[in-house]
Amino acid sequence: MKTVSLARNAMATRFEMVLHGDDEPGLRAAGEEALDEISELSAQLNYYDPSSEVSRINAGAVLEPMPVEPGLFRLLQEAKRIHELSGGAFDITVAPLMRCWGFVDGPSCVPDAEELAKARECVGMNLVNLEAENFTVQFDRPGVKIDLGAIGKGFAVEVAAEILREAGVEGALIHGGTSSVCAIGSPLDEDFWITAIEHPDAYPPAHKTVMATALLRDETFSVSAGWGIKFEEDGFSYGHVMDPRSGRPAQCALLAAVALPSGMSSDAWSTALLVAGEAGVAALGQAVVGARSLMLLSGKDSVLRLANEGFDLPEE
């Protein structure tokens, strides 16, 4: 049994994969093909590159129906479906809010009521019309923009896994920046791939603590977290994850993880849970039987607590 490890930078992060099998050249060729596809998706979905397909849609879809590549159309359909199932907690049209709060090109600050109201007029998946027969997308009003950053890495590992399976790979682990991890089969002589979710407050890196573990086989788990880009104003801290329903940074959870068969679905749902909190867990449970989820919540007196459905927690 051979093991092949491959990696590539894409989507502003590092994608890595480990593949098991008897045919080392075949494994390597399949892995390189999967990474090539991830690179192509990175170029296609790049919100900040004016030559990307997403930028082309954002520039022209308000004027007329824009034809899109079928794979991207599939991604947009799934984004709209999870938007509806999550009660609007997941929304790929939050870009105007991100800009309004200064998270795109700064400076970051709390917008006034008029600015916020204007930005919110351009947010909502009801403003995005998808026509399946011709694979077209059209926006209902000027100012609507789509940003697939909250679902793109999950989609990328899902597509990569599809390529590996078609090539006959029966055992592999793929991750995009460690936030979306896709398992094919299981490692040699093991039943599952074992992955860990680290506590977000466990710094420095040498002192990171494992908050939970996920046993994976033929599924993907994705993690969304509220740490990272933020600013403080008048004694309050504002993070970069937006609640599209209120137009303000989300406050419900510090971290959310979801395990599902689909990479793009797990990525989107982890964001939805981060925004909606425990109400999102209920929505996920209604939408997907047997879904596993984990959330780190700030409880009474700022004491952190876990809401866990199906992940393994370390013993106290």
- The fraction of residues assigned to DSSP E strands is 25-35%
- Which structural class is indicated by helix and strand composition? alpha+beta
CATH-level-2 architecture of the domain at 53-139: Orthogonal Bundle
CATH topology of the domain at 53-139: T-fold
CATH class of the domain at 53-139: Mainly Alpha
How many beta-strand runs?
Answer: 17
Roughly what is the average pLDDT, rounded to an integer?
A: 91
Terminal Cα separation, in Å?
37 Å
List the secondary-structure elements in sequence, H or E.
EEHHEHHHEEHEEEEEEEEEEHHEE
**SS field, number of helical segments:** 8
Spans of at least 5 consecutive residues with low confidence: none
Measured as a percent range, the helix fraction is 25-40%
| Radius of gyration, taken over Cα atoms and rounded to an integer in Å | 20 Å
Strand line-up across the major sheet:
1-2-6-7-10-15-16-17
* Main sheet characteristics: 8 strands, antiparallel
Please state the overall shape, judged from the principal axes of the Cα atoms: globular
The CATH superfamily of the domain at 53-139 appears as: ApbE-like superfamily
